[in-house]
Every structure is written in structure tokens, then in C-alpha cells.
Design brief:
The protein has one helix and five strands. It has 112 residues and is α+β, with helices and mostly antiparallel strands. Strands 1, 2, 3, 4 and 5 form a five-stranded antiparallel β-sheet that branches.
């Protein structure tokens, strides 16, 4: 009977150790984008990402490398055409191309 209790206690300890290890490995990757239309030629793109590697902000013309980890910031696009829609993508290249889209947003510059 004592032997069974000892095995049960040992099994319980191993279970809790494994659960704590798995909880530490379960960091989810996430990201978000928002925009502010400044004028007919300028859009500010606010970005945030967490637990990501090799993150880039893309607009179909330019690729802005933002790095890894957890960061937030603003990137200003100031060479845009008036009254034109632009799509911005926050992409994580932890897994090489095609990567994983963390967030996508579209904004339109104002008319002159």
C-alpha cells in the first residue's frame, strides 16, 4: 500500500513539473495595426507585436524590418498619392516565406 502511494505521489509531481514546463512554452504570437490619415500624402501606421521573430511592415512597395520580440511604434508613409487606398501588412517571418500575417489594415489618403 505504501508503494502505491509513493508511485502516485511521484506521478503527481512529474505531472505538475511537465505542466509548468508546457505553460512556459505556450507564448502566443500576436500583432495589431491601426492607421491615422494625416493628409493627402501621409498615413501614420501604428503597429504592435509580441513574441514574434523577424517582423516586417509591408505595403506592396516597401518592406520595413521591425525586428523581433515585443515592440510597438509608428511608421510614417509620406510619399503617397492623394485619394488612394493602401494596404499595410504586419508579417512574422519566424517561418520563412510566405510568413504569417499578424495584422492587415487598409487606409485611404484624403483628396487634395
Amino acid at each position: 500500500m505504501k508503494k502505491n502511494k509513493l508511485y502516485f505521489l511521484l506521478l503527481l509531481i512529474v505531472f505538475f513539473v511537465l505542466m509548468s514546463l508546457l505553460a512556459g512554452c505556450n507564448k502566443s504570437t500576436g500583432g495589431s495595426l491601426s492607421i491615422k490619415v494625416v493628409d493627402s500624402n501621409t498615413i501614420d501606421v501604428n503597429y504592435f507585436f509580441s513574441n514574434a521573430k523577424n517582423v516586417q511592415l509591408e505595403d506592396g512597395r516597401y518592406i520595413i524590418k521591425l525586428g523581433s520580440g515585443s515592440k510597438s511604434g509608428v511608421h510614417r508613409y509620406n510619399d503617397l498619392l492623394p485619394n488612394t487606398s493602401y494596404t499595410f501588412t504586419l508579417r512574422d517571418y519566424t517561418i520563412d516565406p510566405p510568413g504569417v500575417d499578424l495584422a492587415i489594415i487598409t487606409g485611404k489618403t484624403t483628396s487634395k
